[in-house]
Amino acid sequence: MSTVTGSEIVVTGATGNVGTSLVRVLADDPDVRGVRGLARRIPDLGPAGVEWSEADLASEETDLVREFRGADAVVHLAWAFQPTHDPVTTWRTNVLGSLRVFEAVAAAKVPTLVHASSVGAYSPGPKDRAVDETWPTHGWPDAAYTREKAYLERVLDVFEHEHPGVRVVRMRPAFLFKRESASEQRRIFAGRFLPGPLVRPELLRFLPDIPGLRVQALHTDDAAEAYRLAVRGEARGAFNLAAEPPLDAAVLGDLLGARPVRLPRTAARSAIAAAWGLRLLPASPHLFDAVLRLPLMDCTRAHTELGWRPEHTAVEALEEFLHGVREGAGAATAPLQGRKIG
Q1: Which of 207, 228, 315, 330 is buried deepest, with most CB atoms within 10 A?
Q2: Collapsed DSSP state (helix, strand, coil) of residue 158
Q3: pLDDT of amino acid 72
Q4: Predicted local distance difference test score (pLDDT) of residue 66
C-alpha cells in the first residue's frame, strides 16, 4: 500500500475517547510531519509535537477554513452525546457542525477527509451473521444518535459527488472502550450518580439476558490505528471496525462471573424509560431500541484493504474499561476527566 508521507493532519474532537488515542499514534508516526488537534477546551497536557486550537465547530465565529488550510487530511471525530432530552442541541453540534467541517474541507482544498461514522448508522440487521459495508445506512429513526449518524452518511454521498477530488473515508466502528474513557462513558450513559467502586463482579450475581442485546466492541487504541492507516494510505469508502467475539449475555456472564437471567425487552425498556424520564439515567430508551437492532459487522474490508487487525479482543477492551470505571480512571482532558463518585 502506498502512503501519504510528510503529512499535516488536523483532528477534530481531539480530546475525546478516540481523539486522544489518535493524536498519540499520529504523533508517534515518523512520517507524519505535524498534528493539530481541535477541541472546545484545550488540554493542559498532550502528546509532544501536537499543536492545539480552540474551536466550536458549530459556531460561525470559528474559521474552519483557516484551521484546515495546508492540511493533507482532516479526521472528523467531534461528537456530542448529550443532552439526550434536547435533540435540537445535539443536531446543531453534530450535524450542523459536521456540515461546516465538510464545507471547510472543500474550501481549504484538503485532499483527504476521514469521518467518524458508526455502527449506529446502519439500518436494523441480523444478529446471527455479519453484514459488510453495503448494508443500508438509514439508522434507527427514533434515536438522535443513530438518526444523526445516518443523516451524515447521506450528506457525504452528496459531498463525494460534488467533490470527487477529495478522498473520503467513512469509519464505522463498534462500541469503543479503553481505561481512560471510563469516567466519561459512565457519565454519558450510566449517569454521574453511579459510584464506580460498586461496579464489581463479586457484587453482580445475576445478569439480564435481553433478547437482541448482542453487540460488538473494540479497544479505542485499535480504532485509532485503523484511522491512522486510513489517513496514511489511499483507501476510500466505508470500513467496519470491530473485534471478536460479539458481546452477549453468555460472554458477559463468563467475564463477570454472573448467571444470565432472561429479561423481556419490554421490562428492560420500561425501566430505562422511567429512569430517563426522571433524569436519573442519561441514556435514552430510544438508544436502547436502536442497540437491540444493530447488525453485526463484517470487518474483512478493513483487514484486506487497510491491513488492519485489532490487538485486543472485545472482552479485553470491555474488561479494561470496567476496571477503569471501578477506579474512576480518566485522562487530562475536559471530556475524559476522571471522577470516582458523584
Answers
A1: 228
A2: helix
A3: 97
A4: 96
pTM of structure: 0.93
Q: Find out whether 247 and 318 touch, Cβ atoms under 8 Å.
A: yes
**Exposure b/e, 234-255, CB count within 10 A at least 16 = b:** ebbebbbbbbeebbbbebbbeb
Of 216, 1, 220, the C-alpha closest to 125 is 216
Q: Which residues of the chain have pLDDT under 50?
A: 1-5, 341-342
What gap in Å lies between CA 134 and CA 111, rounded to an integer?
Answer: 24
**Cβ 22 vs Cβ 227: under 8 Å:** yes
Please name which of 223, 190, 237 lies closest in space to residue 314, comparing C-alpha atoms.
223
Other beta carbons within 10 angstroms of residue 311's beta carbon come to: 11
CA dist 245 and 286 (Å) reads 25
pLDDT in the model for residue 57? 94
Contact 148, 95 (CB under 8 A): yes
Beta-strand ranges (E) seen in the chain are: 7-12, 32-39, 50-54, 73-76, 112-116, 130-131, 167-173, 175-177, 206-209, 215-219, 237-241, 243-247, 259-262, 296-297
| Pairing state between β 259-262 and 112-116 | unpaired
Cβ partners under 8 Å of residue 47, min gap 6: 23, 24, 27, 28, 35
Please state, in angstroms and rounded to a whole number, the distance separating the CA atoms of residues 194 and 331.
19
